[in-house]
Write a structure and sequence with these properties.
alpha+beta; three-stranded antiparallel beta sheet; 10 helices; globular
Length: 246
């Protein structure tokens, strides 16, 4: 996987074709497919991305979405009497390192009798087509599809969840924060996949706005706009902005 390259999202015409209302497993796979190339600069077979674990898919999506190493997360104090908005910065490389520390383990040993594998994009796709009346039933059935050895019981679900979170940290990512006002410490969940998709959606909206400004100012068609390299488009947009300020 070290020979793969991720490109910046939000600069090519194809990036406007991404429909962010698509179900998440399909959306994540499509973005990874659009933004990843092999050592020769060619496309990667889409099935490869479906076979990746959810943790790796999340890590790669985060890399594509990151415009820099630091990402700002907005949280809220869990103390209802306080409720202060909290902001923390986490490094993409720091989060990626958490994933790199566990990818070498093929299976997760919950106990001497129970071993599970990490969920993949294909698993998400299979779960997408199923419905359950209660959450506990859904969790139990999903876990059963991940069993390599043994059989999970309903009584062991909490322990399984704890071990899975420890060995697949980006799936149910949490951070511990302390409120500077009430000093209460809280464990906050961050949906890294959702955060990444929101950042990518914003990049797409910025690209749409850039196309609109260039078309309105220079009377170019969309096809003509995307024939211009993105760094030159950025320069033209800067000129348009400076003209407005005169």
């Amino acid at each position: 996987m070290s020979d793969l390259t991720f490109r910046r999202f939000g600069i090519y015409e194809s990036d406007l074709n991404i429909d962010f209302s698509t179900a998440r497993p399909f959306l994540v796979t499509e973005i990874l497919d659009y933004c990843t190339t092999n050592a020769q600069g060619g496309a990667v077979d889409r099935s490869f991305f479906w076979d990746l674990t959810v943790g790796v898919r999340t890590e790669w999506l985060l890399r594509i979405a990151g415009t820099g190493d630091e990402i700002l997360f907005t949280l809220r104090c869990s103390n209802r009497a306080c409720g202060r908005e909290l902001e923390i910065e986490l490094g993409v490389s720091e989060i990626s390192e958490l994933q790199q520390q566990v990818v070498s383990d093929e299976t997760i040993n919950v106990s001497s009798r129970l071993k599970l594998r990490r969920p993949t994009g294909n698993d998400q796709l299979a779960w997408l087509g199923r419905s359950f009346e209660v959450e506990s039933e859904a969790l139990e059935q999903m876990l059963r599809t991940l069993v390599v050895e043994g059989a999970p019981s309903r009584e062991s679900l909490e322990e399984i969840g704890r071990v899975m979170d420890e060995h697949d940290p980006l799936v149910n990512f949490t951070v511990q924060v302390q409120c500077p006002d009430c000093e209460q410490e809280s464990v906050c969940e961050i949906d890294l996949e959702d955060v990444s998709l929101n950042r990518l959606r914003q990049a797409q909206l910025r690209l749409l706005a850039a196309v609109h400004r260039l078309a309105a100012h220079y009377h170019w068609s969309e096809e003509e706009i995307f024939k211009v390299p993105h760094w030159r488009r950025d320069y033209y947009l800067g000129l348009i902005e400076r003209e407005k300020q005169r």
